[in-house]
Amino acid sequence: MRILRFLAVLVAVVCLQLLGARLYPNFPRAFDLFLVLTVLCALRGNSTVGLLAGLATGLTADALSSGPYGLFGFTNTLIGYSTARVSQRLVIQRASQVFLLTAATVAVQQLLLTGFAYLLLDKGELPDLAWLVIKAVTGGLVAFLTIVLTAALRRTRERRRRGRLERLRL
Questions:
Q1: 3-state class of 8 per DSSP?
Q2: CA–CA separation, 106 vs 125, rounded Å?
Q3: Which of 40, 56, 92, 168 lies at a C-alpha separation of 20 to 30 Å from 11?
Q4: Would you state the pLDDT for residue 124?
Q5: Cα-atom radius of gyration of the chain, to the nearest Å?
Q6: Which pTM was predicted?
């Protein structure tokens, strides 16, 4: 069931990424929804889930990008695995902590992409610092809002369930 939910969210992320790029040409420079999905999946603390989520989102991002195939797949796999390992060691429960972790992973991903492009393509250029900061902040905000909204939906669902149970007891 979780894999179907992940695939449905991945399809939604692809649609959002394509729609955003269609409406605003700099959208891929400002948002990396694939990496946010990787981080949110890896926060469960399961290294295998983080690794596979990073691989799936990275290869999907590679399919949509014009760069060499596998670059995002490899970096997102590393990010997913390392984020899962970090979440095994640290207690990350607050939305503000998720914001900081996601912003840091965006910066690390950009550095990894630059390093791998330099090693593999001999044309590794440092990303523009302004776009790096924008992408880190927007990635953190998307993760923050996702955590806050899912928590609110869980609370609402739980309240409705309790209300139904109370009505059944009467």
A1: helix
A2: 16
A3: 92
A4: 62
A5: 18
A6: 0.88
Residue pair 35/84 in contact (Cβ under 8 Å)? The answer is no
Say if CB 69 and CB 62 are below 8 A apart: yes
Residue spans of the domains in the chain: they are 2-169
Q: Which residues contact 94 (CB under 8 A, 6 or more apart)?
A: none
Q: Tokens 């991002």 map to which residue? A: 61
Q: Tell me, what amino acid is at 127?
A: P
Asked if residue 74 has pLDDT above 80, the reply is yes
CB burial class (10 A; 0-12, 13-18, 19+) of residue 123? Answer: exposed
CB 50, CB 42: distance < 8 Å: yes
Nearest 10 degrees: Cα torsion 96, 140, 12, 159: 10
Q: Decide if 144 contacts 96 (C-beta within 8 A).
A: yes
Determine whether domain 2-169 maps to CATH 1.20.272. Answer: no
